[in-house]
Specification:
alpha/beta; Nucleotidyltransferase, domain 5; about 35% helix; about 20% strand; globular
């Protein structure tokens, strides 16, 4: 099924449950030309099935370069791991102008939105049920799963984290992107010379 791209119709973990009391922000990226690193960042959550249940993966990605700025794994859907990934990205990189997410409670909660507001970052959220509004990080999940997760048997969270660390290094610094004429995400984000030194 994995090799053929076939998925079960059985229920999956819902990673984007909204909360009525949380503010939802408008989608700011429609018709916006995104051409520069740190212009727009995005984040999302996906689930990964292990032998004894699900774990959750979040990543923060630069939209223009597809560079993965940070990522975290959690065994719960509490917002801590999303906030930690955001703060890690902000510590290591320049702040973006806009940050885009879906409307899930991890992103609409005060801990996440306050961290963005403190930096003067504009908050953008996908329309309800519109996964295409955050298409590049959705594409990242497909790459992670088909190029790593589905090809190896991860028994524990520790094994998974080690495997993901290896994959994201490959994804950022070695994996060529067709949309960038074969350049890596790191080459587009940092520039070719800096990326070579960092690799």
């Amino acid at each position: 099924m994995r090799l053929m791209g076939i998925e079960s119709v059985a229920p999956k973990p819902n990673t984007s449950r909204p909360r009525r009391e949380h503010k939802v922000y408008p989608y700011l990226l429609r018709k916006l030309s995104i051409t520069e690193p740190d212009q727009v960042w995005c984040s999302d959550i996906t689930y990964i099935r292990l032998a004894h249940g699900f774990v959750y993966l979040t990543a923060v990605m630069d939209w223009a370069s597809r560079y993965v700025l940070s990522w975290e794994v959690s065994v719960t859907m509490d917002d801590d791991f999303c906030v930690n990934a955001l703060k890690s990205a902000l510590r290591k990189h320049n702040s973006p102008e806009i940050f885009n997410t879906h409307q899930g409670s991890q992103y609409t909660g005060n801990a996440f939105t306050a961290a963005l507001k403190e930096r003067g970052i504009k908050i953008s959220m996908d329309g309800k049920g519109r996964c295409m509004d955050n298409i590049f990080i959705e594409r990242l999940w497909r790459s992670v799963k088909y190029e790593k997760i589905f090809l190896e048997e991860f028994e524990t969270v520790t094994e998974l984290i080690a495997g993901l660390k290896e994959y994201f290094e490959f994804y950022n610094f070695e994996r060529p992107h067709q949309s960038f004429s074969g350049k890596t995400a790191a080459e587009v984000y940092w520039g070719e010379e800096v990326a070579k030194m960092a690799a």
